[in-house]
Amino acid sequence: MSARRALTGLLLHGLILVALLFAVVPFLWAILGSLKNNDAIFLEPFSLPNPPLWGNYAEAWTRGHFGTYLWNSVAIAGPAVLLKLACASLAGFALARLRFAGNQLLFYGFLIGLAIPTNAILIPLYYTVKDLRLLDTLPGVILPQVAGSMPFGIFMMRAFFRSLPGELEDAARIDGCSDFGVYRHVMLPLSTGALTALLVFTFMASWNDFLIPYLFIHEQSMRTIPLGLLFFQGSYVSEYRLIFAGIVMSFVPTLVLYAIFQRQFVSGITVGSLKG
Questions:
Q1: How far is the C-alpha of 184 from the C-alpha of 194, rounded, in Å?
Q2: Dihedral, CA atoms, 28, 29, 31, 33, nearest 10 degrees?
Q3: What's the pTM value of the predicted model, to 2 decimals?
Q4: Looking at residue 80, what is its pLDDT?
Q5: Is 248 left (phi over 0), alpha (psi -120 to 50) or beta?
Q6: Cβ atoms within 10 A of the Cβ of 122, count?
Q7: What residue spans define the domains of the chain?
Q8: DSSP of 39-52, one letter per residue?
């Protein structure tokens, strides 16, 4: 038994190491490449830059209009995340704690959205946004992103609210709280961990989203970071050092956000797992 347990542990550690390499090597290559010239990127891909070319970042920022792309991504991701958190927490609370006709049916209807890929609804979605005259506008990107993330957000928040003891809700109702009062004064303050985990997930999805901005944004001045990197590569096809610099700057905000909320994120993704 001990030998089998040791072999199982060795295999698990080996799989973790392989997964770590696949996750870390691309980041390492991008960081090293952003500090080199074009020749060194391919001749010595994993060598340390000597000397580091920090000017690549300044050049990518100015020549590639990266500041504009960064601001556009913030202007889209910020409101999108706030709307996702508000809508998902309200719907999750209603489906978890309120009793009304069609509760379960409505929840399963939202779950169907998890099985429908975005690619399957792109054509009707495009014409809907076009008919609403929202092409090349921030709401034209924010609203589809919010709608697309609702099934996962509602599923996650419903699981959390169902894990809370019912005595808390009963005590609030005895004190005279309405349904919204229970949500606002009792459930919402307790959902910090779950909301933080959902914040990280939704921010990453909005920040890295390529397909929806690609379809609904045609003006160069409104491109987001993923779109900017695409056209940035087309404009400077031989300037790989600037492409790598743009890639590094694009994933820094996500890493900073995760570092800030790491503890709440870990607790948030595990809460509610014992009761569905």
A1: 15
A2: 160
A3: 0.83
A4: 94
A5: alpha
A6: 14
A7: 2-33, 61-270
A8: HHHHHSTTSPPSS-
